[in-house]
Amino acid sequence: DKRYVMAVSFMMLVLGLIFLSNAQIPWCLLGFIPFFSLSMGGTAVLNRAIQIEFIGRESFGKMLGILLATGSLGSVIGPTLVGWIFDTFGNYQIGWVIFSMGIILAVFLILKIQRRVFDEPKGL
């Protein structure tokens, strides 16, 4: 089930962020690299596969637009938020914890999505 693979991939991202939050310890960077790399590779492939399987082809373009727009918004807010956290508190750990909690929430949501039965478009 792709949902389980995605959940494992996201949990690997959380582990990577835990290592990253302790980057002042040199060996933690060595822990960050494999977890983060494998997670990003896994989610990049699984995103579209899960979208097709659980949302359907007829809504693929619309949903892709929504996902990319919200992802772009997160790409603006995330670094800005973590920069503010660093400027305010003097470290990045709070930001990584916040992101990790968001990812854990995403894992629960991914595991709860249900397959729908889609009618194949006529003529295929």
Layout of SSEs?
Blueprint: H1 2-21, H2 26-55, H3 60-89, H4 93-112
Question: What distinguishing features does this structure have?
Answer:
mainly alpha; 124 residues
What's the quaternary structure here?
single chain
Distance linking N and C termini: 26 Å
Largest sheet: none
User: How many runs of DSSP E, i.e. beta strands?
Assistant: 0
What is the number of helices?
4
β-strand percent reads under 5%
Average pLDDT taken over every residue: 87
Helical/strand content category? mainly alpha
Radius of gyration: 17 Å
Low-pLDDT windows of residues? none
The helix fraction, in percent, is over 70%
Shape: globular
Helix and strand run: HHHH
